[in-house]
Amino acid sequence: MMVIEDCKNTRAVTLFLRGSNTMIVQEAKRSIWDAMCVIRNLVRDNRIVYGGGSNEISCAVAVSAAADKVPSIEQYAMRAFADALESVPMALARIQDFAPFATLAEVKSRQIKENNPRLGIDCMDNGENDMKEQHVIETLIGKKQQIMLATQLVRMILKIDDVRSPGEDQ
């Protein structure tokens, strides 16, 4: 490894990547790109949220509670949105070979009972569901972008469905 120090232009950085094959090098490039995007997001807005599906669970609980107060048919859309938010922690549980429904139900009930929105899926399998203790964080700006893009996609699909319903003549 070669390290060059005391350069005049300290804002420029060059990374040399090596790997046993091109797939390894491409994966390293993607990982570095992802890390630079996280740094960019933290520079733009340094607020963070806890990961492991904890924020999605707490948002789903809040949306479900708000849906209880809506007397109109809109409450069903709100409940569907809450269910969609819960798909992230369920996917994390499924990836870890946990029982997804049981794991989500346990963490969700603990979040409500303990009033601790930092509780998420223990993907490191160390017996601790508190994402603050596990140091699992995400940038707030990244999480907001994910939710906004997913919501916009669903709205586009629903608009298409309104324009052309199944069974209509073509």
> Which strand-content bin applies to the residues?
under 5%
Write the element-wise H/E pattern from the N-terminal end onward.
Answer: HEHHHHHEH
Overall geometry comes to: globular
State the distance separating the first and last CA atoms: 64 Å
Helix content: 55-70%
Q: Which structural class matches the secondary elements?
A: mainly alpha
* Count of DSSP strands: 2
- Strand order within the widest beta sheet: 1-2
Kindly state the mean pLDDT as a whole number? 87
Largest sheet: 2 strands, antiparallel
Number of helices: 7
Low-confidence stretches: none
Regarding quaternary structure, what we see is single chain
How big is the Rg? Answer: 21 Å
What would a concise description of this structure say?
60% of the residues lie in helices and 4% in strands. It contains seven helices and two strands. The longest helix has 24 residues, at 140-163.
Relevant terms:
7 helices; single chain; mainly alpha; 170 residues; globular; two-stranded antiparallel ribbon
Description:
- The protein is mainly α.
- It contains 7 helices and 2 strands.
- It has helices at residues 22-44, 54-68, 74-85, 87-95, 100-114, 131-134, 140-163, and strands at 48-50, 137-139.
- The chain has a two-stranded antiparallel ribbon.
- It is globular, with a radius of gyration of 21 Å.
Task: Map the helices and strands.
Blueprint: H1 22-44, E1 48-50, H2 54-68, H3 74-85, H4 87-95, H5 100-114, H6 131-134, E2 137-139, H7 140-163
Antiparallel strand pairs: 1-2
Helix pairs in contact: 2-3, 4-5
